[in-house]
Amino acid sequence: MSMPATITGKEFFEMLRDDLAAIEREFGRDTVSGVGAITEIGEYLRGGGGKRIRPALLLLSSKLFDYRGRGAVRLGAVVEIIHTATLVHDDIIDEADTRRGRPAANTQWGNPKCVLAGDWLYMQGFKIAVQERNFRILDTLIDLTQQMVEGELLQMEKLGKLITLDEHFDLIFRKTACLFSVCMRMGAILGGATAEQEQSLAQYGLDLGIAFQIVDDVLDLTASETMLGKPVASDLREGKVTMAVIHALERCTPRERNRIETVVRERAFDGVTHAEVLEILNRYGSLEAANQRALQYATLARNAICSFPDSEIKRALLWAPEFVVAREK
User: Fold this and answer.
1) Is residue 269 assigned to a domain?
2) Which helix (H) or strand (E) holds 162?
3) Total Cβ atoms within 10 A of residue 134
4) Among 139, 137, 217, 138, which residue's Cα sits nearest to residue 177?
């Protein structure tokens, strides 16, 4: 009797419930410092919640090889700590006021304290990772951090400018997909995967991360502020050009292009409304084109793990791309 291709979302989270709860406890312990401000900021950030999809991927990758050690929980906390540190720095750089429906940490504690708290979180993540005594994991995390910092700097250089699709995908890799890929790779390393298996899982994470970010960018343009937990069209307000916008720019009239370019250059909807930009994107099917591209990467992610034998864990990994492209926030 053949095994169903995927599982349900309820089954997915039930399967990981205990491990994710352990990661949450670890995350809480690991963000306590002798300096009160760091502990307060860390607890505030952890309380903001989140999908915890990155540590979930690391757990699933390690479970694919029946790994039973404590390292997956420890490293799951590490990737969530590193992800949180990037969010702190992103909000400062973007001058964001809100994050996940709450005031951004920098609006509560100020930029100087939050920069240092973000730095502390990065170092704390590495301090915990060292406990694994595994140089390959440390090398992977160091490479990840460099890619993410380079991605942030590259994005700052391109703010307010019209970029190419290749440039956009480079930013997606550095700022999002790289971390997804590393989560899968570290789980494989813990589980003793072969080089080929590790590469397949890293590719799965990469494709899934690209799909995740494309959907995120579309939602930024189309979802409600209540759903997003931040202002709609934040990317355009910050001078960031994403895939749907690039698609429209390649097809629209000079007048339409000028209107979009004005928003990007001025980083504001002064004289051009969000509704007008959406009308242009819809006219050229740009939002749908981006969603279709996300579906393509979701399919590539599934294909990357097709050689693994059927199991409950594999079914969970096959479901994750479906969750990523269907989400509404």
Assistant:
1) yes
2) none
3) 16
4) 217
Residues ≥6 apart with Cβ < 8 Å to 276: 259
**Do the beta carbons of residue 162 and residue 257 sit within 8 Å?**
no
Domain hosting residue 114, numbered range = 9-326
Write down the pLDDT at residue 223: 86
- Write out the H or E segment, with its range, that includes residue 103: strand 102-103
Rounded-to-integer distance, Cα 329 and Cα 36, Å: 32
Enumerate the β-bridge partners of residue 99: 102
Q: Which residue has the tokens 């006021």?
A: 97
Please indicate, yes or no, if residue 130 is contained in any of the structural domains: yes
Mean pLDDT rounded to a whole number for the chain: 93
Q: Which DSSP category does 7 fall into?
A: -
C-alpha pair distances (Å), 108 with each of 27, 102, 122, 237, 329: 21, 10, 20, 22, 24
DSSP 8-state symbol, 250: T
242, pLDDT greater than 50: yes
Which of 25-39, 88-102, 251-265, 274-288 is the least confident region? 88-102
Does a structural domain hold residue 4?
A: no
Predicted local distance difference test score (pLDDT) of residue 96: 85
Number of domains the chain contains: 1
Three-class SS state of 231:
coil
3-state secondary structure of 189: helix
Query: How many CB atoms neighbour CB 253 within 10 A?
Result: 10
What is d(CA 235, CA 329) in angstroms, rounded to the nearest whole number?
15
